């Protein structure tokens, strides 16, 4: 499972303008709706439901919201860099400015976990997060996200 | 007169130097005790030339220092830790010491050609782990271990000295050859040591707490009273033939777990006293040795140290811990933290005081063992803990906290914090901050003036916060207000995602397709973990469920409050992956019988040793 299998260049947002956790999730749901053709409301509800179980703000300004949707045909990822960090109830109480949304089909099972693990591992790298924060264009971010795995694979 | 002044200057200079050197050493990660020991050696006969070979005096100072260190260690040991680890710690402290002594002694007899009693004596002297070294090492640099692991090591080191002391004295007496029915005397002596030590220690601890709370003294006298009482417990027990070391440690535990008047004062004072004791004891021991006379003993000392570190301690640990459900990584770690320190050196004085002819040799060998143990093990403990993945994220403790003891009658303390940028309570809407139960905010000071409570919208870095807080909630308050220490190096994480321990397991299982049974689905996450864990749950405990792991992140009021989901469980290993396998393959290749190719090569009998096989392989190639 590699990042490249999860995300396309069009699924990268360089400067997302939101002011709250709810708004951030809403905006991501809207983008995901464009990408998958599913209803925005449904996606948002799934994400919100997951946040109720426990925050996906994993600390260091990172959030990995995720959820399962029965109608999906494959895994979908969206990356967003926020223009201004928002409070996300993260485990370290730090506001979030990097988000990786991951949506999985109901039947994904092990693949869902693998993809989450891969994203979590990627964003644990402080070096990469620093570079991502310095990027201004979606293309540069996409390149960064996907280039890293070449070095991982090597 | 002049001499007295010079001695004072010299002593204080050494003390100052030790403290300064200690600060520097922590930057390069050198174990502090090693620094003190080294300074003592530098100041001694082969360095600056201070002549000191008063073994009697060193024995006196060493006893006193050790008693104070053990008492302080006891004061800091919560009863909960004891309940958690008394089983493994007591087996390690008794059977473990005997096994370590026997294996090390056996190796000494076999490898160094010592006569049996001398060999066993060597083993006994180095058999106990050192409380001073273990306490200091585990608390230095904010290393946080799983509670069961850290507590096992601490309690073991606190209670294993009597066994080693007892073995040593018995063997010295055997050598001296007093005759008589030895088995009876030995067993009798042992029971007396343990029994009296435990009895006087526990009774003394209770009595001490009662006296402290009843007596009306000048505040400054409470800690002095306590330390005098601790020394009295130690001395008294020793005089009537019990183990003073055990007694003083137990007295510390008992007293430390009761409410004491002037609690803070006593703790602060003892903290300082324990430091002085550690420095002075190791300085004196460093002064006592004369490295130039040790040359002949370096080789045997090194052999004993290596056997002890790599064979005796691990074998003893693994055998003793069989019934206790420790993971392999934890057992390896406990084996590695078998630090030797002052106690062995101190025990090695006994043969000299006992007038044994090779007394000095025991002392030198022991000194080398301790030195190597501090160097090899002491220096690498944090690294090993990381490597074996046994560390927990640092708890923010007391960073920037001031405590005020109100009175023994009031069960709440006044505590204050100066918030920093990294305090979790800072820069957050005040309404969102949930104070722990029974904790009251008294006042917030900003820029030197009081902020009325209704006006507080958020707490800022630089604010002073004063709270009225029951002692059991102090840690919870720390979590909110003290600053987070930023530690260099790899971060310790407990899981990728975090869940409330009260969530239903079924919800979690659906979200991540976890294989759990129908009954398990109805449990909360916390209940399930409690059920699946072999021991009472502790922060850092992990349970594998399918391909992921659940790890306990926080426990509040005996309930699992927070759980982490580990998506990619790592399997800790000390050596690079494959190294063990390769070594195993090489080993089995060596063991395999050589194939007879040309008839000249005699097949080896099954009893041919490893050496013989090696020799043949070498000559063949």
Automatic annotation (TrEMBL), chain A:
Pfam family, one: PTS_EIIA_2
PROSITE patterns named in the record: PTS_EIIA_TYPE_2 (PS51094), PTS_EIIA_TYPE_2_HIS (PS00372)
Keywords: Transferase
Primary localization class, coarse: cytoplasm
Domain PTS EIIA type-2 intervals: 5-148
InterPro entries in alphabetical order: PTrfase/Anion_transptr (IPR016152), PTS_EIIA_type-2_dom (IPR002178), PTS_Nitro_regul (IPR006320), PTS_SugarTrans_NitroReg (IPR051541)
Transferase among keywords: yes
CDD domains membership: PTS_IIA_fru (cd00211)
Gene3D superfamilies: Mannitol-specific EII, Chain A
NCBIfam families noted in UniProt: nitro_reg_IIA (TIGR01419)
Name of the protein in its database record: Transcriptional regulator
